[in-house]
Every structure is written in structure tokens, then in C-alpha cells.
Predict the 3D structure of the following.
Amino acid sequence: MKLLFLTVTLLILPLLHADIIMGVVPQQSPLKLQKVWRPIAKYLSDKTGEKVVFKTEKSINTFEKVLYEGAYDFAYMNPYHYVVVHKKKNYIAKVRAAKNIRGILVMKKGIGIEKLKEKDTRYLFPAPNAFAATLLIKYDLLKNFNVDPKLLEKARYVNSHDSVYKAISRGIGDVGGGIERTFKNMHDIQTKENLHIVHTTKAYPSHPFAFRPDLTEEVTQRIVKALLEMPQELLKTLSVKTLCTIDDSEYKSVEALAILLNIMPE
């Protein structure tokens, strides 16, 4: 009987202490993300007593597929990803950076804004559904700059914000979308100095940490508390000054934009 009890206990214990998978949208290269997020995963593990494991994907498109399958216990995602995964899998946003997010339109220095409308203009974006870097920028190009939609239909998607910046700097593309934070965080000084920001979008609620509904409330609250108490040196690596708790209703404006752009799933 003791042997049976021991065997059952050994089988159950790993289930009680399963890894908590933290997914992170790959706005930058996986190598850069590892340097930033692995220390955060370690901090969360130490703070909560859970084994929090950082995971990302090679592209935003792949991240979307994994996220929409519900494969992450909690994840740091863009606002559009959130309204979709909330509808598909009922993930709940709990924490976000206090500062809102804005998209930026970048061009190589010396090229004028008139380039936006030229028929041979090459547009680059990180991914079709990157929220601020693609969706907000495209919306403003159509609404504010009257850019021909056919030009945007020919746009190339290059997997990350950094790839957009580098390609524009090297003349592989003419105009590209990004966000303020990734542009500020770019370590390639030469690339950064070659570019200038020609437009900034309206502000929207920033990337949330959202949690799978079947993650226990106790574990969720411990992770939320740890995120809110994250040391400044870790927040600094994210270019974030403060994290705050949020209400799901904050993302209604994002959902409304997705409906307007006809990209909200049924």
C-alpha cells in the first residue's frame, strides 16, 4: 500500500508543479527577447514560487497561431491579439504598461513625405496584424495621407520591428511601420541615425499581460502581484516606467478599430 501511495504521489507531483509558460510577442529578434525576458521569467519564478518559462516564436504570425490555440498560460501580446484571443479563448488582461502605445512611420533621412504616395514606394511592416506598427499606421496612411490602398496591398512583412528599421536604413524599403518603444530601444546606432519619424499615430492602450482562464486564480494573482512589484532595473529593459492593473473594457476602442478595419473574427 505504501509503495502504491508513493507511486501515485510521484505521478501527481509533476502535475502540481507544471511549468507556467509565458509567451511574448516577437517584436524584436528572439535573441534580443531572450536577453530581456529570461531575467523577468527568473524574477517571476523566484517571486511566485512557480517555474515561469519564457517562450517566444520566430515571427509574429507564428506567435499568433500559438496564442490563438491557447498554448500560453499567460502572454505579453499586442492589443489586437488580445481582443482576438479574448474572444477565441477568453484570456483576461490583468496588467499593462501605464503609458499608452503609438505607431510610428519611419523613412530614411533626406526622403520627403511626398514619397508616401509615389507608385513605386516600397512599404514594410513587421506583420499583417502588428497592432500599432501595421494596423494603426495603415489606417492613418489611408485616412490622413490618402495613400492608394493598392500601394499598401503590395507591402512586405519582415517579421520584426528591428527588421523594418534595418531594411529602411539600407534602402531595401522606403517607408516602414514601428512603435516608439522599439525605435527608442534599438541598439544599432547607425540604423537609428539613418532614419527619422515622419508620423506618430493616436494613442491606444498598450500591450497587456493576459491570462488563460483555466490558470488558477491563486497563481494568476501571485503573478499579477509580482509583475506590479517588478524592480526598476527589469522595467527599464522593457522601456517601461510603471505597470498597472487594467480593466478589460479599456480594449473596447481596439475592438472597435478591428471591426472598422474588418479584421475582427466572427
In short: The longest strand covers residues 92-97. The two ends are 54 Å apart (CA to CA). The domain at 14-98+207-248 is CATH 3.40.190.10 (D-Maltodextrin-Binding Protein; domain 2).
